[in-house]
Amino acid sequence: MGTTHAAELVEARLQERRDAGEGFFAAQAGRLATLCHRMAERFARGGRLIAVGTEPAARSDVRHVTVEFVHPVIVGKRALPAIGLTGDGAPLTRELALTVACDDIVMAFGEHDPVDDRVERAVALGRDAGALTVAFAALGAEVELEPPAADPFVRQELVETAYHVLWELVHVFFEHRGLLSGRTEHRVHDVGASSFLYPFLSEQETDLDAVLADVAASALMKFGDVVDLRAATLAAGADTLAGAAHALRDRLDGGGRLLALGNGGSATDATDVVADFLSPPAGRGWPGRAAIDLGADSAILTALANDIGSDAIFARQIIAHGRLGDTVLALSTSGNSLSVLDALAEARRRSIETIALVGYDGGRIVAEGLADQVIVSPSQYIPRIQEAQATVYHLLRELVA
Q1: pLDDT per residue as tens digits for the range 88-142
Q2: Contact, 129 vs 158, CB < 8 A?
Q3: How far is CA 267 from CA 81, 301, 332, 379, in A?
Q4: What pLDDT digit, counting tens, does each position of 164-208 carry?
Q5: Going from the N-terminus, what domains does the chain have, and what CATH number goes with each?
């Protein structure tokens, strides 16, 4: 695909995401706000988030949402209990039956499948147990937030923004103790000059409707932020993306493999990239492509971290797996993670081509020229960076095809 055609495809895909997202968040912002409140009440009673999914891309979302809740990246936000079930160790419904309790939240990922109904049966089990059930497709959940898009990549990106918004804004209700059932009012917030950023924090704790309205407005604002960030990312990075896709396609056609890596939420994005290359969306006619997720094997990761150090967890795997003709794709929100930097350095020593998707100003990856192709999402806010990066790697997959 030529550079002109690639640029036209990128612009068309960005418009699809803008249109679908505007429709989705205009319709669902109020429901997302109410859901944040309901989830906060369950967390306050000792409930947990239990994410479920079985298909490759869905499993990446299961892991992504759980790491966000357990390991919050916003300073001062509390860790919230979350666990992911994917049916790896036992049938999904058996795993869930042995895990779920009445105050939990069961969040299901995946689409309706007339042949494989494991996730739908898990949703039904969660409802029967008294859990609050949430899904992003017609799976029989109490709360269903289905994106208005046919493209599976667009749907998944909207779902990611939705669960990021839930994670970000559920914390608002912990700042308003009086709005949670069984909790007494703690204080009325006066945020002074910062009220334009967080207007809901200055509301009376007895005014639930006002807080819900502000949370809904914040959800809409967050979607607008990622629209702007996607546009900024690809305004500067479209040519780089087209060149990276062309070179990657040539190497894959020549027998090379894609080795993807990242930490935390970026590790789940690497898992998603590999799933998309190995098992592309049905109906596209795209061939499967050879790809390895360097974050997938917990035994390898923990052995390396324990015996050598966490900085070596990816570099050592590149020593083991990497060969001429391969490509390393590194995802990092900061561009400064030592394990990612060491992996890129090892790939360069072995003359393996590298692509990096980074946030902020690109960090050391950009400053020290550590990757051959770099696309920067210029933001300091991790959820929005990850959402923009999802668009980039989905477009990369489509351009490679």
Answers
A1: 989 999 999 999 999 999 999 999 999 999 999 999 999 999 999 999 999 999 9
A2: no
A3: 19, 12, 9, 19
A4: 999 999 999 987 766 776 554 444 444 444 444 444 444 455 688
A5: 3-182+196-224 (3.40.50.10490), 228-400 (3.40.50.10490)
Instruction: Tell me which amino acid residue 309 is.
Output: G
Measure the CA–CA gap between 156 and 381, rounded to whole angstroms: 20
Q: Do 384 and 226 form a contact (C-beta atoms < 8 A)?
A: yes
Cα gap 359→90, rounded to integer Å: 37
Query: Looking up tokens 């490759």, which residue turns up?
Result: 56
Positive or negative: CA dihedral 379, 382, 211, 178: negative
CA distance 57 to 64: 11
Tokens 């000792």 correspond to 46
pLDDT at 289: 98
Would you say 262 and 330 are in contact if contact means Cβ atoms under 8 Å apart?
A: yes
Task: Name the DSSP class of 173.
Answer: G
Return the SS3 of 22: helix
Is-contact 32 165, C-beta < 8 A? yes
